[in-house]
Predict the 3D structure of the following.
Amino acid sequence: MGNPKGFLEIKRKEAGYRPVRDRIGDFGEVEQTLNLEDRIDQASRCMDCGIPFCHWACPTSSKIPEWQDAIYRENWEEAAQILQSTNSFPEFTGRVCPAPCEKSCVLSLHNSPVTIRENEASVIEKAFDYGYIKARPVAKRTGKKVAIIGSGPAGLSVADLLNQAGHSVTVFERDDAIGGLLRYGIPDFKLDKHVIDRRLELFVEEGIEFKTNQDIGVNVSFADLEKEYDAICLAIGAMKPRDLPIEGRDLSGIHFAMDFLKQQNKVVRGDEFSKQERISAKGKNVVVIGGGDTGSDCVGTSVRQKAKSVLQIELLPKPPAEREEHNPWPYWPNTLRTSSLIWKDVKDVGL
């Protein structure tokens, strides 16, 4: 534990967001960063609990108290090493994870958990800035070849682990660029795509091969993959949408979320679409069905496209503004954050 009294002496302080009038005018990342002194103070609030519920709640089993202590000691290299021991992409999760760790933090009982997610993003960015994150060449190959179908976060994580184990890894992607949901499903205002490209450059240096425009079963035979590779991993992702087979579904102007988000990400990249192809909310009254992260991404994108109004419909009850006494520990998922608090954008601009 960095500071035994840190959680008593220092209040939770978030980095906050760019001014609303600025951020809704572009697709740049919305979050700001704390200065170094504030970040160290926030890390010092970690109590290094005997049973770290934050570690239990993290899908990647991040050793959170350990790297919080490394931040407090300003050892960014050690913090990054601990982070990457369980997570191939702290720079992704530090930006877009809904942070169940914070909801399980003991300090969350008083609505002031450690700023774990922001601390995570700060650690990995400091490590990149200081040159600690470098390609890790594989010393010895096993002679085994593995094909991974799908280049989203799951496929890339598998590729990283298998490559480091010494296998020769090839990642096949149906789209024209690597990243899957990271590339085309998450808007740039939550995850700038240079963050993905930076990590991919390291993977290429480490020997992972990437093949785009490879639609397995269409222009690439699965049987051929079986002949060439010793193992095949299916990591085909979440691009198949749930439909609503209801009256009026076939009317014009109704689009799946991923079609909408994917096209906008391509537009930000510089791609052009005809007037007939373009899915735009500009000047329109928009209804978003679904209140999760994807729904919030559609809301934020619609706002930035200058929609006339935005209405979001959610099946579940409105989550409480703060933790409630009758909710079970650890109050999950009722208080999970949506990654960029896009509803604040809508509220602030009066939509």
